[in-house]
Structure prediction request, 480 residues.
Amino acid sequence: MLKRYLNLIDGKLRTALSGRELDVRCPSDGLPFAKIPASSAMDINAAVKAARAAVDDGEWSHLSAVGRGRLLTKLGDLVLDNLDDLTSIEAMDTGKPMREAEQDIRMTARYFEFYGGSADKIGGETLPYFNMFNAQVLREPHGVTGHIIPWNYPSQIFARTLAPALAMGNAVVLKPAEQACLTPIQLAVLAREAGFPKGSINVVSGTGAMAGAALARHRGIDFLSFTGSPKTGASVAAAAARNRIACSLELGGKSPQIVFEDARKEEYLHILVQGVIQNAGQTCSAGSRVLVQESMFGEVLDGLASRFEALTAGPHDEDPDLGALISNVQKKRVLRYLNLPDRPHLVAQGNVSPSAPAGGHYVRPTLFGPASEHSRLSQEEIFGPVLVCTSFKDERDAVRIANGTEYGLVAGIWTRDGDRQMRVAKALHCGQVFINSYGAGGGVELPFGGVGKSGHGREKGMAALHTFSRLKTVVHHHGL
Ligand code: NAI
Ligand code: MG
Prediction:
C-alpha cells in the first residue's frame, strides 16, 4: 500500500476533486512509494476561494502582526520537533543525502523563526508634507498570494516564499512541484497543528500544466511568486501580466566563482567543489563556473580534478557525497550536456556507488576545462554535478567573462586584495556576491534574487517583507 498525501484546502485535507492521483517516486531507486493528488483548476479554484475568505473577513484577517509572528514561530518549533521525520521524507522524495536533507529542514525552521520575529517589526511611515496635512504610508498585504515552487529544495523554498508572505498577512495558495512535494504537504499539516486559521495556508499538488498553470492565470490572485526554469517563469509572468498583477521570479543561474592568483588555495578548493556538488548540482545558486587567473589555472584544475575523482554519487540513505538526480528526465538532460559533440576537454569524473540501485538517476560528477567562455557548458544552466573551468588574464577580463552570460544570480570572488574585492563585487551583474566564501542556499538573513534571465524580485531577509506587501498613501487634511 502506497502512503497517500492530501491537499490542504480551507483547513481540510482533501483528495483532488477529480479523484486522480500521481505516483511519487524515490530518485535513489526510481520506485513509487506514495501518492499525491493530481489536482486541476477545480482544486485551485477552491483553494483561492478559501484564501480570499481568510484574508477578507476570516479569523486570519483579524489576527495582529504579533499573532501572525507567534504562529510562524510555533511552526518553526514544530518543524524542529519533527526533524527526523521531515528529514527522511525530504531525502526519499528528492534523493538528496540525509545530511543535506537535515540541513534543509533546519533551514526551514530558521525561515519560520526569522519571519516569526519580523512580523511585528515592519510598518509604514509618516511623511513631511504641507502643515495642514498628515501624510502617512501604510504597508499592507497584497491579499491572496500564489506560490509555485520547484523540486530541488521543496521544504526550504516552501518556507522561503510562504513565511514572509504570511508574516505580512497574505493568505497563500502554494503549488509544489510534482517531482517532490511531500514536505510542503507535511509542513501545511504542521501549520494547521500550529494554529494557522483555515484558508490562510492552502497547498495543492499536481502537475505544472494542470495545477500550476491554473494558479498562475487565476483571477483571484493578487501577487505571484515563482521559482523554477526561465521558460516556465516567462509563461507564469505572462499569465500574471494578463491579470495585471506583479510577480517575482527566481530562475536559476550560471554563477561564477572567480579565483585570483593571490587567493589561498587551501581555503577555496573545497568550497569550489561543494558549491556545485551540493544537491547534485540542482541548486539555483550553484557555483557552476570557475574562472581562474591563467598563472594558476593548471594548478587549480589539478586540485579540482583529484577532488572530483574522489566523489561518489549514491543512495540518499548512505549519505554519499551526492545523491541521484531528481528524475530520469533531468538525468537525460544533464547527460546531453556531457555528450555534446563540441564539449570542452573532460578532465575528471567521480564515481557512482556500486550499491546504487539500477533504477536510480545517478550521474557521475564531471569536471571540464579549459572551456571557452562561449561554450554551451559555460553559458547554459545544466542543473547537474558538472563544473566548467575557464581561465582569465586580469581583473577586467575576469569581470567581462563573469558578466558574459544571460544570467546573474550569485558570484564568488577569491582574492586577498581588499581593493579588488570591492571593485569586482561592484562590477558584477548579479544579486549576491560572496568574498572568500560561497553560500549556495542558506542565509535567511541575506536578500537574494537575480538580474536578467535569473529573474527579478528579492526574497529572504527583510527585503522579502517588501516583496509580499504594498504601500498605500493616506493624505489627511486636518486644517491649521
Ligand atoms: P519548471 O520551471 O517547469 O518547474 C517549476 C515549477 O513550475 C513546478 O512546480 C512545476 O510544476 C511548475 N510548472 C511547470 N509548468 C508550468 C506552467 N505552465 N504553469 C505554471 N506552473 C508550471 O522546471 P522543471 O521543468 O522541473 O526543470 C527544468 C529546468 O529548470 C532545470 O533543469 C533547471 O535548469 C531549472 N530549474 C531551476 C530551479 C531554480 O531553483 N531556479 C528549480 C527547478 C528547475
Ligand atoms: Mg519525488
Q: What stands out?
A: The longest strand covers residues 133-141. The chain has 16 helices and 23 strands. The two ends are 75 Å apart (CA to CA).
